[in-house]
Amino acid sequence: MVSILQTAFELGLISSLTVLALFLSYSMLNVCDLSTDGCFTLGAAVGAVVALAGHPFLSLPAAMGAGVLSGFVTAILQTKMGIDSLLAGIIVNTGLYSINIWVMGGASLLNMNKTATVFTAMKDLLRDTTFSGYYKTIVALLAVFVIVVFLGCFLRTRLGLAIRATGNNPDMVRSSSINPAFTTIVGLCISNSFTALSGCLLAQSQKSVNIDIGSGMVTIALASLLIGRAFAGKGGIIKRAVGAVIGAIVFRIVYAAALRFHMPAFMLKLVSSVIVIAAIAGPYLKSRYPELHRRLTHKYGKREE
Amino acid sequence: MLSIRHISKTFNPGTLNAKTAIQDLSLEVADRDFISIVGSNGAGKSSLFNAIAGSFFTDSGSIHLDGEDITLQPEYIRARKIGRLFQDPLLGTAPGMTIEENLALAAGRGGWFSHITKEDRNLFRERLALLNMGLEDRMQQPVGLLSGGQRQALTLMMATFNPPALLLLDEHTAALDPATAEKVLELTKNIVETNGLTCLMITHNMQSALDLGNRTLMMNQGGIIYDVKGEERQHLQVSDLLILFREAAGKNLDNDRMLLSE
Q1: Which CATH superfamily is domain B2-93+166-246 in?
Q2: B67-106 residues touching A, CB cutoff 8 A
Q3: What is the pLDDT confidence band of residue A102, given thresholds at 50, 70 and 90?
Q4: What pTM was computed for the model?
Q5: Is residue A21 part of a domain?
Q6: Residue B102 in contact with residue B158, Cβ under 8 Å?
Q7: Coil, strand or helix at B16
């Protein structure tokens, strides 16, 4: 039972990096980045290939760099080429499928069973200490900590403020002499580097990568983000970022619990879809309720006395 | 200062919906001019502002500001020299961010990676106090919580935080209640005077068109049809302005709201 919880916790931490990516693109920039799935796989593939080549530590920046490139293309399409932001994400996502297979050398599956990764490095480091069983958790915690601290600082800089304002009111950004196209590009480059890092870490922790590793990630991450919003509410940046991480962990723990109660594993994606629908449609329907109530209680043809 | 020469702009050219917004318009604005602009709906007042601010490029002609040719400069670059307020108080601020963060963006102090310093905060507090709305004690609150009048006053402050070479006011008090409108207009006058700004103001209120500033323009069908300043303007009454307007605009005026705001 404890090990199930621990695994869920690790998975939550690793996927929370993707949730933080969406926190930046979806909550801050107001762009729903549908290239997330492909970018996640890209990070996993690039990270795996570099690790297999014998560079476990280089695999992280390499994956993030690939993510930056992918985000750059998505951003250029929507800011400079007149392609709608949703469509831009879908197009990049489709293109990435071919690129990912190309990165993996034409295979759709890579194995890292005997490969040195950041996880094995941490395992060696912690050998014979009390924490030796927690090496995966520690790597994931470190990554999440670094990214949260980075976001907390970055979103308070002038550039960070400009990125937040771009999602809030692009006209205001323009009148502050800042080009909203520039802030969108920077924001998407950063968010996609988080997504790719997330994919890289997941692949290395499960010691394999297949071409479908990222499928559905955008919905799962959105579900986690919206769960996190319910926890953290509308506080400061750090509080909301931590909320996103908690959301990711809660999502994985609930999912693990559901598996214990014999929910088949293939239900994961349906569950994430339902959570996203409930989290977005719920408040909308709630706000419509008075009108619905009025319609139902109005008596047609009768004049009020 | 601002020199506009023979600019024209037609939307949807070559189609049935072609609409000439500005037609061969020329205007010379002197340093420290405060010009009020009146005209019926669709006369081209806002289009003129859009052309100056760079919301669109003109089809022909040239625009120079402070000797620099800005005809084809992107909007966000012109914004360094041009401050602008709209009728809608929601347009000028980011509602989800705090007053302090909005101000930090408008102030644009420091590099891309600079944070808001204590010194910045003191400066913001000082400037906010000038508005007399108690906003200096609410700097950590999101702007979305402010009333329309407060947001417009804040926008005015943000647009003039670094005194711009040119301030464009597009009916910026029209959406406010009379008392608040009065207050924002008073603030505008103070800020323009203290900073010695050059300012263009669109208004539908004939009285304030004549009360404020040193020059009044009347626009119709994408051109300037009347331009008055100095002695002649001092003797001008609202009723004179309306007569002039009727003459120029002919029956266009019949159902215009301008008649109502005498």
Answers
A1: P-loop containing nucleotide triphosphate hydrolases (3.40.50.300)
A2: 74-77, 79-80, 83-84, 91-97, 101-102, 104-106
A3: very high
A4: 0.88
A5: yes
A6: yes
A7: coil
